[in-house]
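Lab meeting notes turned into a lecture example. A postdoc, R.K., suggested we walk through two folding results consecutively so the class can see how the record format repeats. The first protein's sequence and structure tokens come next.
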Amino acid sequence: MPLYKIITPSAATQILVWKITESLEELLPQVALNESNVLRFNGMKSELHRRAFLSVRMLLTQKGYTDFDLYYDEFGKPHLKDGKHISISHSHEFSTIVISNQNIGIDLELQREKIVTIAHKFVAAEFSFLKQEFLQDYIQKLTVIWGAKEAIFKIRNEPGISFKDHIEVKSFEIKESRTKAILHFGNLQTLYEIYFEELENFSLVYAFESNLPK
């Protein structure tokens, strides 16, 4: 399938989403990989992971980039050679990238009931506004909370950050499509603007540092 959706939060930022319906054999001839990513690709055991990896490169082409414009730092964070910020995520049959003049993080997660059993591992203060008796709403909110914390972690990309202990997502309702979060880490407190939306039964979540111009 071609491009699934484009989201433009600001003039400086664009999010692209791909729904992965192609086979590996259909994707392979359309993508050229740089030497290091050939090694990464060949090391992947899962065909779904391989297809997602290639679909991200298909998304890059939508913005005029190729895999040769992309590199990863020592912590695994992706960068574009022209200096623009990029964040990448994929989950099952969806993949997404965001390209921006601002430092931004993005996460895409399938909403699954399993998240209820692991909530205690990444949720602390947020339990104050979560209502477990409404299961679907609870799952959706937990998925957004996880996605927000993952997106913030992708921005900071620092070892030692705990989703549960260092990142707090403020109260929100799903219909609002936005909230705020605070990272308490080291001697700093950083505020983030969090945005989210539903894509079928997935949650797409992205975060900006709120003190940056939009």
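The second example is placed directly after the first for contrast:
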Amino acid sequence: METIVDFLTPKKTVQFLLEHPQALFIDCRSEREFRFVGHPAGASHVSWNDGPAWEINPDFVDEVRKLAGDHRDRPLVLICRDGSRSVEAGRALEAAGFSGVRAVLHGFEGDVGADLQRGSVNGWRFDGLPWGMSGCGKCGP
């Protein structure tokens, strides 16, 4: 049986998180993307895959399980760059017994526009939703 991750638009994600304060919001992009491109306000970071070879993080499910307090029915919302990694990560969580997994449609940066850049068509930043940057790790959080 194929698992299906539900999608929320970025704006619906904000509404969902306000209505479900127990929900866990996870940015599953690489550490560099999270720190240097920016991330949604309030999102925890657990990489689904990371460089230099973009290997799948073998500890992804366990790291999410720890953040969720081992409550596999806790609502989870995943975000990545454009929505594709969130689906893969969500399927892995569902296969591990998590329910209520959602992914942010178009992700943080959105689809590539006519200018061959992300951020001009859709996505979290395009919608003007709260976000920040973490810096280099030597500069503070």
